[in-house]
Amino acid sequence: MDSPPPLSAIKDAKVLMVGAGGIGCELLKTLALSGFPDIHIIDMDTIEVSNLNRQFLFRQKHVGQSKAKVAREAVLRFRPNISITPYHANVKDPDFNVDFFKQFSVVLNGLDNLDARRHVNRLCLAADVPLVESGTTGFLGQVTVHLKGKTECYECQPKPAPKSYPVCTITSTPSKFVHCIVWAKDLLFAKLFGDKAQDNDLNVRSGNASTSDHTEDVFERRKDEDIEEYGRRIYDHVFGYNIEVALANEETWKNRSKPRPIYSKDVLPERLIKQNGNMDSASATDNPSSVSAMASLGMKNPQEIWSLMENSKIFLEALKLFFGKRKKEVGNLSFDKDDQLAVEFVTSAANIRASSFGIPLHSLFESKGIAGNIVHAVATTNAIIAGLIVIEAIKVLQKDARSYRMTYCLEHPSKKMLLMPVEPYEPNKSCYVCSETPLSLEINTHRSTLREFVDKIVKAKLGMNLPLIMHGSALLYEVGDDLEEDMVTNYAANLEKVLSELPSPVTSGTLLTVEDLQQELTCNISIKHREEFDEEKEPDGMVLSGWTPAPAVEKKDENHVDNGVGTSKNITNAEQVETNEDLEIVPADIEIPAEKKRKLSEISNNDGLGTSRVAAKTNNHSKVQDLDDDDDVVFISGGDSDPSKKRKLH
Amino acid sequence: MDGEELTQQETELYDRQIRVWGVDAQRRLSKANVLVCGMTGTVAEFCKNIVLAGVGSVTLVDDGVVTEAALSANFLIPPDESVSKGRTLAELCCDSLVEFNSMVRVSVEKGDISSFGEDFFSKFDVVVISSCSLATKKLINEKCRRLLRRVAFYTVDCRDSCGEIFVDLQNYKYTKKKVDEAVEFELKYPSFEEAITTPWKRLPRRMARLYFAMRVIEKFEEAEGRKPGETSILDFPGVMKKRQELCEEESFNESQIPDYLLERLVVGTREFPPVCAVIGGILGQEVIKAISGKGDPLKNFFFFDAFDGKGIIEDISNPDAAS
């Protein structure tokens, strides 16, 4: 049998993998088997038990160790002669600068969050290194190829922002279980166990100044107060009293069903029987991380939906355990999905609140998923996606630009395909990341501070890591290790000032330049003063625009769909039938069945990996059809006859 | 289900996938017994996937010994000769697989798969075979079909950067939730023999060409008495001749089975690791579907070619054959 030597393109390649998790483990294995000789891998995470069902390079004994390092060792066992360089570090560390990226032939992403994806995208653009990007959720996945100036960059299409809820939905009018979870996690848990100094909207706003005095110390445990009394007092306050206060505002309930106040005495016996709450059985060891209210109450099944009474018991027990076994941490805890007691507390609190509002209750398992924004993950999808990444990486190394594909891994076949390749798009000319398009910001320059601008726009929206803000030649703000002390003081003072009162005032018409030196990205933002913002629709109190695809492009896409399905001369009748059969699946964003819709929004909710684009893409750009049209000629230009189409690469 | 609960260990380990397919599916998986024959790179990928998923047991059959070719795409085999000497591929793969998940029983069965009786196959819920001759594929498929209990049967083969999966679930019933009510579905699968004897000209015009090309190679290897993958460029003229013969029998246009595709399959007998990952992943997903009863299983062929990147499902059932 002849054995072909590894492709010369692979033999000389030096690749960077970002992420050694679900996709990363599969990817490293497939790269090694395929003959890649020099692989660098960055991952800041350590191994957890819940990784082991799919991250097959890791074992129980590795829990707590660096993913990048353990992955390297595991792969060297079956491919000892290749070079793998691990970095147990955050890809956003300043060490990983443009020069670092420049040493690689291609960068392969196996990340789980939008923030890092955007950061790597910018560094790849700045270093002019091709990027193969990927993501999976459950059975869905995708692989895309990004080459500066040739294909769209990762940020050419705006990514769905993480879901946020209006404050009053959370504090007063929850209608879904997730609202109760957010309340329990971000408000109640934070109030009781987190930093007391933090602002918190837990109490219903009543407009009456005297009651706010009264509520001020409600959450403090009184001197010598019995822990169960304290727990019941908190219980009665948040599930009873606060609901009564809310009910008093009749306007709110005109078109809503009224919640029911719940007091502990109505649900539980006056005094909980002591043997039930045996604190010692909560943990065999004194390890604080193994403390559990469920264990303490003899409850085992995380899949079970607890009754109101059970939830109430868990609530009081969890609170008791926090103040008993984990007292030291109280005051600086923040919610962590891997903290069993925290999950128990949040589950019970959310369920009791859900009972009040007539919302269906959920199990601990489900609550944990919602509260922790847990990404659904299976090994098979990751393996498939990793295989597809390597296929694209090899094409990139061979500079075979005509055959680059974005590939979608689908749960239900579309046009008979479970793996669907689509030609990449050319860069979006209005992309502020790869095309330097100016942005515009509507903001109240008399009320918004520089800090709000930095947090809500520069960091959250523009995804900058080490920003520098300039107004003309005046520096308003910058981040860095090597700043002079007086500058640091200066910038700190600037942060608290409203825009119009900065040393170099920012007013309507000002052009601000925001730069990230690490990402080598510069944005120009034109400021427009606006007095009022809609609290519900524009909770940031500022609106950034200019980077959504221009309307003209959208229109072209519509034309394309029409063209693809109906009028193209290439398409036979038989194929139209085929297309119609697929209607149920493909053009999901026209008429999405309820179930599907939820799934899509969940995806964007998780980390914006963009799988939600599967439906949008396959629908808006029926390029697949072009590809499927003739098997002999794999690379069809397709767009020649119709200049209005969004232009493909070739 | 029977109300048995998963242990805390299982709940923790399988947390992320239970969020995908649910507790019931996980319980069914943990009771399923899978037989795997032919430890190729693709099968190694598949085994990894189902061991991680938490099936009850996996039994491996392959008495072959380590060769450079066997190593090339299989990450379960250590390259160290001192470890692999005197041991079969199945044994070596077994050693690696047991480490992936202590809750799955992985074992080895020695012997020639084609000599195993029906009793043997009746112990399994799923049978996957790879790198077997045409005759063996048919034989094992028929043995599985004669059993009282339904055994899900799969074949999987990768050549060059192409892969093929065949699925026979016999009569497969499953329920799907549509809005609020559960709807019953039933799929009738043809056997491998029934499927591949479907007259070519009756198949849809846009059939994946890989299907025809794989049949030509299969017939060529059978006629020449070759083991699967025992071909080289020297065989290309013979394969072309086989194509001509088959196309004449089937009144089928030879241009539907392009030369370049046959050439790739004849020459590229080594597996291409990224394709192993893709095909092993799809196969893993399908087996998980069939065991758990969740999701639409594919019927009844799957093809992937890295050249065009498409992963295509084809339903190849002979409407005339009584099944």
Beta-strand content estimate of chain B = 15-25%
CATH H-level homologous superfamily name of the largest domain in chain A = NAD(P)-binding Rossmann-like Domain
Roughly what is the average pLDDT of chain A, rounded to an integer? 79
From the alpha carbons, calculate the radius of gyration of chain A and give it in angstroms: 28 Å
Separation of the first and last Cα atoms of chain A? 38 Å
The name CATH uses for the topology of the largest domain in chain A is Rossmann fold
Pfam family, one (chain A): ThiF
Subunit structure (chain A): Heterodimer.
Family (chain A): Belongs to the ubiquitin-activating E1 family.
Keywords (chain A): ATP-binding, Metal-binding, Nucleotide-binding, Nucleus, Transferase, Ubl conjugation pathway, Zinc
Plain-language structure description:
Chain A is of the alpha/beta class and 650 residues long. In chain A, 38% of the residues lie in helices and 13% in strands. An eight-stranded mixed beta sheet of chain A has the order 3-2-1-4-5-6-7-8, with helices on both faces. In chain A, strands 11-10-12-13-9-14 form a six-stranded mixed beta sheet. The longest helix of chain A is centred in the middle third of the chain and has 22 residues, at 227-248. Chain B has two domains: 8-193 and 271-314, NAD(P)-binding Rossmann-like Domain (Rossmann fold), CATH 3.40.50; 195-267, no CATH class. Chain B is 42% helix and 19% strand. Chain B is built from 13 helices and ten strands. Chain B has an eight-stranded mixed beta sheet, with helices on both faces. A two-stranded antiparallel ribbon of chain B has the order 7-8. In chain B, α3 links the parallel β1 (33-37) and β2 (57-61). Chain B starts with 7 loop residues before the first helix and ends in a 9-residue tail after the last strand. At the A-B interface, α2, α15, β7 and β8 of A face α1, α2, α3, α4 and α13 of B. β8 of chain A pairs antiparallel with β10 (310-314) of chain B. Chain A: One of its GO terms (molecular function) is SUMO activating enzyme activity. Chain A: Residues 441-533 form the Ubiquitin/SUMO-activating enzyme ubiquitin-like domain. Chain A: It is found in: Nucleus.
